[in-house]
Amino acid sequence: MMQIISISNSPIYQIQYLTAASSGLGLIERYLPILLAEVDLLPNNLHAIIITSDLQGIDPKNHQLLAYLLLEELETLNNGIQVIKADGRAIVIQVKNESLLN
């Protein structure tokens, strides 16, 4: 079973999004931090894994769900990442450049 050994305190990147205000009136701006983590062992055939919480929010520019914005941002962060499947519930990526993992 894979275990997380450590998670960085400082984000390597942040993604702006909108979410409902706690009062229920209007929207507020938030930032989704992208943090690096270290695990003890990845399952076979995986070079990396993305773990998220419930991505409730919307892209302030084109009003798509935050999960899709995350996919777009990860693709633009580095050409070494290619999204294979995204269905709103799961993200599967392929790391084309293994030097990104070191």
State the main characteristics.
two-stranded antiparallel ribbon, mainly beta, elongated, 12% helix, 33% strand, disordered C terminus, 102 residues
How would you portray this structure in words?
By secondary structure, this protein is mainly β. The chain has one domain. 12% of the residues lie in helices and 33% in strands. It is built from 1 helix and 6 strands, in the order ββββαββ. The protein has one helix at residues 66-77, and strands at residues 4-7, 13-20, 27-34, 37-39, 81-86, 91-95. The chain has a two-stranded antiparallel ribbon. Strands 2-3 form a two-stranded antiparallel ribbon. The protein has a two-stranded antiparallel ribbon with strand order 5-6. The longest helix is centred in the C-terminal third of the chain and has 12 residues, at 66-77. The chain is elongated and about 45 Å long.
